[in-house]
Write a structure and sequence with these properties.
By secondary structure, this protein is mainly α. Helix content is 70%, strand content 1%. It has a domain of 235 residues. It has 25 helices and two strands. Helix 7 packs across helix 10. The radius of gyration is 24 Å and the shape is globular.
Length: 636
């Protein structure tokens, strides 16, 4: 019976979307009830797989329509759930269930809720189907459904100026990524005459020719678009900002993780290419650049949600860097940070949605003092901010520390200076992340209350509940990281490296051996917080980062000027009984010296983020060309 659970979980969500579209007009209770009930049952079905898959080590396979392999060739669509797929499946169902609960309160003032819940269930089903399927073309179909559901949800509040533009960008750029994936799938079918990932892995066997290199490069490039890796990241900021916050949480917690999952599945299992130093270097470089560009762009933002969008991009950089190392510890670290990013970034988006619901704005320059009005939201935000900044004992500290150690050990063993540079980049980016959230904390929750928001109160309990749950999970996964490692990370990482089990479970016992497939040697990741040498490196790098931060902006300090060069009275000292005006330190003010001294860099970034969709399309095409060229040079 349990082998039916994965397919039931996916199909139930699609059925729920269908039922909401038919019966959702009858009453809000029926509409909301169908959406939450189907999400809850799907959650239970996936959680029921934890013991057999994660603890007992089983791999659950299911052939749609009972179309099992014929004469050693897979001709049907198969679902294959190993610990790696289930790990991401757990993230998916947890995220969309919490988002659904939050939506009950968040969408009270919105119209067309029936359309919202239909698209919400379609998006959830497509991402869940993507991480559970064992068929490459079925993965592409799920990517397509995911893309178009995401486009429609981005445009859901279409009266906002940014919504339709953001949806159009997402549609064009997402379609380019999907087209690259489809082209790669077609080339693979030309070579292997099958679309089953297990059989493709046994046929290719890590040995590449010109066709398979081209296919590999196209598929990885298409998945990079879905992961928002720089320079494939350009639709993310607008989409995260324009979409309802409950959907922004799903974009951050589910949609980009689907791309990350696809990359891991392709490079470790299907193409088995992670033993090649050229691919490791390529992924680490892309990850380090993504980390840095994301966090520096976040520092310059004045909008709460847009700032969180760029931080999502930055944190994905940590994940890609870690999984690109090709080591057990690196893969553990990447999976751990992917999970933690789902938790703390989802939490931060929910707090941004609470602020928007209460005040009607996410402009950092118009907020302030909300800790007095919204204590639960403030505490939850602080937990998320401490987590993403890597402060102990929250989960971001544990996973970032694992990432640091994994990169450091790889740099030490390989002697590759790019890995050493990635170590320093990761540490400095963490400091800049903390600085960015100091800005948000001050601008939104501390200081004076804007007179316009004097009547603001806490959001309803139905919105507080998901925030509190995610905050508790951020704390629990940080305190009990060893249990997370034992029951979630180690099984998922081992599954990515145990290709023979994956092939044999789908194609039949002994199939991998007959095809000459061998596993990458699995060694449990060795991880400890108490490596004195690593602590010394951390201290030195953080000291240098703090020194640079203090030194930045020293020049030109003094009277703060407005854009036109006139003195801004906002910063005047009040004394002798004058009436004080609202003088909150907003998003434009804190670290203004940093932005001044880095104005050359930000001028370049502003030019690159032009908002012109043809520019963004050219970035994707050029980056894909670079990836394919490097693969042709280094992987033949």
């Amino acid at each position: 019976m349990i082998q039916h659970f994965p397919v039931m979980a996916v199909m139930l969500l699609f059925l729920g979307a269908f039922l909401v579209a038919i019966f959702g007009r009858i009453s809000p209770f029926i509409r909301d009830g169908i959406a939450i009930l189907t999400a809850t049952i799907s959650l239970i079905l996936i959680y029921a797989l934890i013991k057999p898959v994660m603890i007992d080590g089983q791999i659950i396979s299911y052939w749609m329509g009972n179309w099992e392999p014929v004469e050693g060739y897979a001709i049907g669509i198969g679902y294959e759930v190993d610990a790696l797929g289930l790990f991401f499946g757990l993230l998916v169902v947890t995220t969309f269930w919490l988002s659904g609960i939050y939506s009950l309160g968040y969408l009270k003032k919105d119209a067309n809720k029936m359309h919202y819940y239909t698209l919400y269930l379609m998006l959830s089903a497509s991402v869940l189907g993507l991480v559970l399927t064992g068929d490459l073309f079925n993965m592409f179909i799920m990517i397509e459904i995911m893309t178009f559901a995401s486009v429609a949800l981005t445009a859901f509040r279409n009266k906002q100026d940014i919504a339709l533009e953001a949806a159009f960008k997402y549609l064009v750029l997402g379609s380019i990524g999907s087209s690259m994936t489809l082209a790669g799938v077609a080339l693979i079918y030309r070579v292997c005459h099958t679309l089953n990932m297990a059989q493709i892995s046994s046929i290719i066997g890590g040995q590449f020719n010109l066709t398979t290199i081209m296919a590999f490069g196209l598929i990885v490039s298409g998945l990079c678009v879905k992961s928002y890796i720089v320079p494939f990241h350009t639709p993310a900021a607008d989409a995260y900002t324009a979409a309802p916050t409950s959907i922004s949480m799903i974009f951050s917690g589910m949609v980009n993780k689907a791309g990350v999952y696809g990359i891991i599945r392709m490079v470790y299992v299907v193409f088995r290419a992670m033993d090649r130093s050229s691919l490791q270097t390529l992924l680490v470089v892309f990850g380090a650049v993504t980390m840095f560009v994301g966090v520096t762009m976040a520092l310059a933002q004045h909008d709460f949600k847009r700032l969180l969008a760029f931080h999502s991009i930055s944190q994905i950089g940590y994940v890609i860097t870690a999984i690109g190392l090709g080591t057990a510890l690196g893969l553990n670290a990447g999976l751990f940070h992917a999970m933690n990013h789902t938790l703390f970034k989802g939490l931060l988006f929910l707090t941004a949605g609470a602020v928007l619901t209460a005040t009607g704005t996410t402009n950092l320059d118009k907020l302030g003092g909300l800790s007095k009005k919204m204590p639960v939201t403030t505490v939850c935000f602080l937990v998320g901010a401490f987590s993403i900044s890597g402060l102990p004992p929250f989960n971001g500290f544990a996973s970032k520390w694992m990432v640091y150690q994994a990169i450091y050990e790889k740099a030490s063993s390989s002697g590759n200076f790019l890995f050493a540079a990635a170590t320093i980049t990761a540490l400095i980016v963490s400091v800049m992340t903390l600085a960015s959230f100091i800005k948000v904390t001050q601008a939104v929750f501390f200081g004076q209350v804007n007179p316009e928001h004097s009547e603001v109160s806490e959001v309803p309990f139905i919105m507080q509940l998901p925030m509190v749950i995610m905050a508790l999970l951020c704390v629990a996964t940080g305190l009990f990281y060893n249990k997370v490692q034992e029951f979630l990370l180690a099984p998922a990482a081992k599954a990515a490296l145990s290709v023979t089990n994956y092939i044999d479970r789908m194609m039949g016992e002994g199939y991998a051996e007959s095809a000459g497939v061998a596993d990458i040697l699995w060694q449990p990741a060795s991880f400890s917080f108490w490596n004195p040498l690593v602590w010394l490196v951390l201290f030195v790098v953080i000291f240098l980062a703090v020194y640079i931060a203090i030194a930045t902006g020293r020049k030109n300090r003094g009277a703060i000027l407005e854009n036109g060069g006139a003195y801004d009275p906002k910063y005047a000292t009040f004394f002798s009984g004058e009436q004080e005006e609202f003088s909150q330190v907003g998003g434009s003010d804190l670290f203004w010296g940093f932005k001044t001294d880095w104005k050359g860099y930000y001028k370049v970034m502003q030019g690159l983020h032009s908002g012109i969709v043809t520019d963004y399309a050219s970035y994707i095409v050029m980056a894909a060309a670079v990836i394919i060229l490097v693969m042709f040079i280094c992987m033949r």
